[in-house]
Hints:
Blueprint: E1 8-13, E2 16-21, H1 24-55
Antiparallel strand pairs: 1-2
Organism: Asanoa iriomotensis
Protein name: ArsR family transcriptional regulator
Amino acid sequence: MLRRVALVRDVPQGRQRHYHLNAEPLAQVGEWLHPFERFWRERLRSFADVAEEERS
């Protein structure tokens, strides 16, 4: 599956296969997720504040 989506490439050497990560697609996903990460970090911080107030 990882080969099909180009996240790894394999190099056959005799009876072994050596796998190498192609991190570029993961970096693209990280860039796409960045705005959502900021959004959820703020929401979770607010939730934590409310939960702490309830404990007090």
